[in-house]
Design a protein that fits this description.
This protein is an alpha+beta fold and about 170 residues long. It has a domain at about 75-145. Helix content is about 30%, strand content about 30%. It is built from 3 helices and 9 strands, in the order βααββββββββα. It has helices at about 10-30, 30-50, 135-145, and strands at about 5-10, 55-60, 65-70, 75-80, 85-90, 100, 105-110, 115-120, 125-130. A 5-stranded mixed β-sheet has the order 5-8-9-7-6, with helices on one face. Strand 6 (about 100) and strand 7 form a beta hairpin. Helix 1 (about 10-30) runs antiparallel to helix 2 (about 30-50).
Length: about 170
């Protein structure tokens, strides 16, 4: 089973508006010692706007690639081998949007809305991943949670005798 989903959000419009406002402000300032840093600051908001236009989750074989974009400055890998518990959930306004530490522990990666998937990984790591497809993402990740160690008998005994039947 493969998974790929992209959620788009209008948050980038706010970041671009701040960038435009600071460019206009920089243009109005006559002193280059002040206007230059303000113009650079506006460029920072344009880059953030390009970075927080969408949140994509894509199966990459051994891990889930999570990235904001279309300019992928912020991305991470979620290794399937480290997954312990996964479930759809809803966040609150306190969890907010963006990338930050959560009040419940762990990290929040969210671009828009309150639907999310709570993910617990090895070592006590927690991630609350925002998505507009919580059921689909949770079902996919649950299918990737490692099961108990394979307990099937080995084809060769410890003494080296091969007990398998010829074909």
């Amino acid at each position: 089973m493969d998974y790929e989903h992209t959620q788009r959000a209008p948050l980038y419009l706010l970041l671009h508006a701040i960038g435009v406002a600071t460019v206009v402000g920089a243009w109005q300032i006559e002193d280059p010692a002040v206007s230059t840093p303000v113009a650079i600051f506006s460029g920072f908001f344009f880059l953030l706007g390009l970075s927080f236009r969408q949140l994509s989750c894509r199966d990459e074989g051994d891990y889930l690639r999570i990235s904001f974009g279309p300019l992928p400055l912020f991305r991470r890998k979620l290794l399937y081998s480290e997954l312990e518990k996964v479930g759809p959930s809803r966040s609150s306004w306190k969890d907010g949007w963006g990338i930050h530490l959560s009040s419940r522990g762990g990290w929040v990666w969210n671009i828009w809305g309150y639907d999310c998937v709570d993910i617990d990984s090895a070592g006590g790591k927690k991630l609350r991943l925002g998505t507009d497809d919580p059921e689909g993402l949770a079902a996919f990740l649950v299918s990737r949670v490692p099961g108990p160690t394979d307990q099937r008998p080995n084809s060769a005994s410890p003494e080296g005798d091969n007990h398998s039947q010829p074909e």
